[in-house]
Amino acid sequence: MKNDFSMEYKKWLHIAGNIAGCPQGAKMAVCPHCATYHVGFQYFGDPDSRMGFLRVWCNNCLYGIVVSRVAIPPDAPMHSWRDPMPEGLVPEYFIVEPC
Ligand SMILES: [Zn+2]
Q1: 66 C-alpha to center of ligand 1: Å?
Q2: Sign (positive/negative) of CA torsion 47, 52, 56, 62?
Q3: Which residues contact 68 (CB under 8 A, 6 or more apart)?
Q4: CA of 54 to the centre of ligand 1 (A)
Q5: How many domains does the chain have?
Q6: Ligand 1 centroid to 42 CA: how many Å?
Q7: How confident is the model over 12-47, as pLDDT tens digits?
Q8: Which among 39, 74, 76, 83 is most buried, taking Cβ atoms within 10 Å?
């Protein structure tokens, strides 16, 4: 049985795919939850392999997703998971799940 978030989750995944293709393009993304242009993202991963995960969220409504096991594009900003998490790097947000 599908819940209310399945459609929204797909839209978030689409944005995540666009970020992977063009990290600078996130500014142009429309939030699937509140339809404003406040989408932020942050990659976390291993600086050598550049494998990790991607957090995508909206700074206006604080909804978003986490995408695990992604290849981090060479030109994308990445936070090494060896380093302590800087305060305020990612806000607390509601994680939309596919089901
Ligand atoms: Zn939003």
Answers
A1: 15
A2: negative
A3: 53
A4: 17
A5: 1
A6: 16
A7: 999 999 999 988 888 889 999 999 999 999 999 999
A8: 39
